[in-house]
Design goal:
Layout (H helix, E strand, L loop, with lengths): L8 E5 L1 H10 L7 E5 L4 H13 L3 H14 L4 H13 L3 H14 L4 H14 L3 H11 L8 H13 L3 H20 L13 H17 L2
Helix pairs in contact: 2-3, 2-4, 3-4, 4-5, 4-6, 5-6, 6-7, 6-8, 7-8, 8-9, 8-10, 9-10
Length: about 210
C-alpha cells in the first residue's frame, strides 16, 4: 500500500501587511505564507519505516531527518537513519548515527550490533566494535543468535579464529534450540529466522576457509 502524507499545512497571514500596503497606496497585496509541519517526530519515524520497508530509502531518510529536527534525542530516528545509510553503503555516515544512538542509549544491543556491521563492511573500527560487542553479549540482551553471529564475525576479522568459532557454535545452538520450540524463542526473544541460521552457517564456512 502506498503511503502518502501531507507534510505541510498552509496558513495565510496578511492583515497587518494589508493595512501597511493600503497606507502606501499599493494595489497589489502579496501574501505571506507560513509553512507548518503537522506531524510529530514519532509520526515522521513511522512514515520513514513505511518508506524503508518499500525500499524507498531517500524518502525514509527525509522522514528520519525531519523527526530529528523536531527531537534530536529520539533514539529510534537516529538508529533508523543509520540503517538507511548502511543500506546505501554510506558506512561513515552510518557509523556517526549509530554512535549518536549509543550516546542516547549506552550499551544498547541493537545500535552496537549495527555499528559492528558498519565496521565489518567498511573495515574501519573493527577493534572498537569488537570491544563494544564483547561488553554487550554477556548482558541480558546479549544471548541472541544474531548478536553472537556478529561477535563471531568481528572475532574472525580480528584474527581470533578459536574465539570466533566459539561464538558461531553458541549462535547456531541457540538458533536451532529456538527452531525446536516454535513460537517460544530463546531467553524470551523471538524465534530464530531461517535466514539467521543460514548466515551463521555461511560465516562458519568462511571461518574454516580462512583458517584451513
Amino acid at each position: 500500500m502506498w503511503v502518502k502524507a501531507s507534510l505541510r499545512s498552509w496558513r495565510i497571514v496578511s492583515p497587518l501587511l494589508l493595512l501597511l500596503l493600503m497606507a502606501g497606496g499599493c494595489s497589489r497585496i502579496p501574501k505571506i505564507i507560513v509553512l507548518e509541519d503537522p506531524l510529530t517526530a514519532a509520526e515522521h519515524v513511522d512514515l520513514g519505516v513505511a518508506y524503508e520497508r518499500k525500499g524507498e530509502l531517500d524518502l525514509a531518510r527525509r522522514e528520519y531527518e525531519s523527526a530529528l529536527r523536531k527531537d534530536r534525542k529520539l533514539y529510534r530516528a537516529r538508529l533508523n537513519l543509520g540503517n538507511v545509510f548502511l543500506a546505501k553503503k554510506e558506512y561513515g555516515k552510518a557509523r556517526e548515527e549509530y554512535l549518536q544512538a549509543l550516546e542516547l542509549r549506552p550499551g544498547d544491543a541493537e545500535a552496537t550490533n549495527n555499528l559492528s556491521w558498519a565496521a565489518i563492511y567498511s573495515g574501519v573500527g573493527i577493534d572498537e566494535a569488537l570491544s563494544r560487542m564483547e561488553a554487550v553479549v554477556p548482558g541480558p540482551e546479549g544471548r541472541r543468535p544474531a548478536l553472537l553471529d556478529t561477535l563471531g564475525v568481528l572475532r574472525m576479522y580480528s584474527n581470533r579464529p578459536e574465539a570466533a568459532e566459539e561464538a558461531f557454535v553458541l549462535a547456531e545452538a541457540l538458533c536451532r534450540q529456538a527452531g525446536a520450540s516454535p513460537g517460544e524463542g530463546v531467553n524470551g526473544f523471538a524465534p530464530c529466522p531461517d535466514e539467521v541460521l543460514g548466515e551463521i552457517e555461511d560465516h562458519r564456512r568462511e571461518l574454516r576457509s580462512r583458517w584451513k
